[in-house]
From TrEMBL, chain A:
Keywords, comma-separated and alphabetical: ATP-binding, Nucleotide-binding, Transport
InterPro entries with a match to the protein in the record: AAA+_ATPase, ABC_transporter-like_ATP-bd, ABC_transporter-like_CS, ABC_transporter_ATP-bind, P-loop_NTPase
PANTHER family: ALIPHATIC SULFONATES IMPORT ATP-BINDING PROTEIN SSUB, TAURINE IMPORT ATP-BINDING PROTEIN-RELATED
GO molecular function: ATP binding; ATP hydrolysis activity
Protein name, UniProt field: ABC transporter ATP-binding protein
From TrEMBL, chain B:
Domain ABC transmembrane type-1: 90-270
Protein name: ABC transporter permease
Lineage: Bacteria, Bacillati, Bacillota, Bacilli, Bacillales
Highest taxon of the lineage: Bacteria
Provenance organism: Sporolactobacillus shoreae
GO biological process: transmembrane transport
First-listed, main subcellular location of the protein, grouped into a coarse class: membrane
Coiled-coil annotated spans: none
GO cellular component: plasma membrane
PROSITE patterns per UniProt: ABC_TM1
Record field: transmembrane: 35-52, 73-92, 98-116, 128-150, 217-240, 252-270
Length: 272, 285
């Protein structure tokens, strides 16, 4: 990705605080400044509870930042981000809708006729490898297949930003690698910027153009920002044997390890 | 992925077919066993009732007997009741029940939905609804009879207040329990408020609402019958009240039997409705 591309997402001095039921103020993110160019695949890694998902919520527009602003294509975000789609960790698919109704939903909501929406949905269902399952309900599908539905459901609206909140972390290792490869394959055909949240550093490096490390919460900030210049197309299952991959992994892990230890100590402090 | 699909789509082998037949046979056997056990319970209960009553071990005057009850219903059906033909009494009660069920259901869903999606409204009205809900509804029936007279409206009103709260609380809870991710997902995909309701909130809440309809039909029936019991000129509740006034235990039991059969049939209807509206819950996993 060229660095001259315009910013798709810009976080400007973002701080996010919550008031706990006890009345205490809990700072999740503190003074985050981040620019993500158009078409870049960015991963955010950090220890559990550091506020990765909060960052995603802010970009999606589910909640406003306490301080600072979110800009999408240089426009200030106010309310739901209409240029984004999100693959959640748990379920995206509506259990009361069949696969084709789930996938075509985004188009139907935009007022496209049922026939046209179905035609387009069939293409996407084929693209994610679910041909023949159009009439199935999500409960009849495996976890990996449901993730494929989620992907198709998001990508059919051709979002400029694809948000992924630990999307594959509930899958078993093999399904996960399969889905990661699939994601890369489909992503390379689109021009979407991907904002990928994970706690798995290997996954982050294997998929991304850029990996951002957050510090342990509360009040997480950006600790490191790494460009991953491994050649594409990549094979997720094999790339981890690449010496270049290992070098990058080692480098980032040094940063991340400290934060994980801090987060671990914090957790122990609270429980004991 | 492709190989998986083709193996699923390939024609089933003979072995699979025979296995299927075997499983089907097993399922049928199980069904037959359950049905015969159910029948056995019926035979034992009514049989011993009949025996005890005809042997005068229990007093037939107070406890009646299954044969007498069926005979009584037969007499009602053929010669009519004190309030007119039996089918008319049945129809009156059914009409009151269905009307209060529908009205209570509709109001319950509307209010439950409105308070479920609107925090301000639920904060304002919450305490009042809890207060009204705390009143035993049966004490409202005499008031309804004073307000609306001995006819149908007072019975519909008493059935309505009973059904309303059940459906209301379930609809409210159903709306509140919608998965946050699903709402967020729909919003990102571009859903407006109305579309959010249509595609996400209502389908999700329907599971709760429909399960409440099972019990609320029973309550609609209770409302109608209690209303008739306290003051009416026709209906099954009126028949029971009349029989009670004449120390006619058989008549009371006969009315009860007709009521319970009605409730059973209605329950089947609601189950059908449920399968129709939340088909996705019944797909084979």
């Amino acid at each position: 990705m060229t660095q001259t591309a315009p910013d798709m997402i810009e976080l400007k001095g973002i701080t996010k605080e919550y008031v706990k039921p006890s009345g205490e103020v809990h700072t999740v993110l503190r003074d985050i400044n981040l620019r993500i160019p158009k078409g870049e695949f960015t991963s955010i890694v950090g220890p559990t509870g550091c506020g990765k998902s909060t960052a995603l919520n802010l970009i999606a527009g589910f909640e406003p930042p306490t301080e600072g602003e979110v800009y999408i294509s240089e426009q200030r975000l106010d309310g739901i981000n209409q240029r984004a789609a999100c693959v959640f960790q748990t379920e995206n698919a509506f259990p009361w809708k069949t696969v084709i109704d789930n996938v075509s939903l985004g188009l139907r909501l935009r007022g496209i006729s049922k026939a046209d929406a179905y035609d387009e949905a069939r293409k996407w269902i084929t693209r994610v490898g679910l041909k023949g399952f159009e009439g199935h309900y999500p409960s009849q599908l495996s976890g990996g297949m449901r993730k494929r539905v989620s992907l198709a459901q998001c990508l059919i609206v051709q979002p400029e930003i694809l948000l992924m909140d630990e999307s594959f972390s509930a899958l078993d290792v093999h399904t996960r690698q399969l889905m990661e490869d699939e994601l890369l394959r489909i992503w390379e055909e689109t021009s979407a910027s991907v904002f990928f949240i994970t706690h798995d550093l290997e996954e982050a490096i294997a998929l991304s153009d850029r990996v951002i490390v957050l510090t342990a919460g509360p009040g997480a900030t950006i600790k490191g920002d790494y460009q991953i210049d491994l050649p594409r197309p990549r094979n997720v299952a094999e790339i981890s044997f690449d010496p270049a991959f290992m070098r990058i992994h080692q480098q980032i892990w040094k940063d991340l390890k400290d934060e994980v230890m801090i987060s671990y100590e914090n957790a122990n402090k609270f429980t004991s | 992925m492709k190989t998986q699909i083709s193996s699923l789509a390939s024609p089933a082998s003979v072995e699979v077919v025979s296995r299927k037949a075997e499983l089907k046979k097993k399922a049928l056997k199980l069904q037959a066993r359950n049905l015969s056990l159910q029948l056995l319970v019926f035979v034992v209960v009514t049989g011993s009732w009949q025996f005890l009553s005809s042997q005068k071990i229990i007093d037939p005057f107070f406890f009646s007997s299954p044969f007498d009850i069926v005979k009584h219903i037969w007499t009602w059906a053929v010669y009519g009741t004190t309030a007119g033909p039996l089918w008319l009494q049945f129809l009156v009660t059914l009409e009151e029940t269905v009307l209060s069920f529908i009205l209570g259901g509709v109001f319950g869903i509307i209010f439950g939905y409105a308070l479920g999606v609107n925090d301000l409204l639920s904060v304002i009205l919450g305490p009042y609804i809890k207060m009204i809900n705390a009143i035993p509804r049966v004490v409202l029936v005499p008031i309804f009879i004073l307000w609306f007279g001995l006819g149908m409206p007072s019975k519909v009103a008493s059935g309505l207040v009973l059904t309303f709260f059940i459906v209301f609380f379930n609809a409210f809870q159903g709306v509140r329990e919608v998965d946050r991710n699903l709402i967020n997902n729909a919003l990102l995909l571009g859903a407006s408020k109305g579309q959010l309701a249509k595609h996400v909130i209502i389908p999700s809440a329907l599971t709760w609402i429909l399960s409440s309809l099972h019990s609320s039909f029973g309550f609609a029936l209770i409302g109608a019958v209690v209303g008739e019991f306290i003051g009416a000129t026709q209906g099954l509740g009126y028949l029971i009240a009349q029989a009670q006034g004449a120390f006619d235990t058989t008549g009371v039991f006969a009315g009860m039997l007709i009521l319970s059969i009605t409730a059973l049939i209605a329950d089947l209807g609601v189950s059908k409705l449920e399968k129709r509206f939340i088909a996705w819950r019944y797909v084979r996993k």
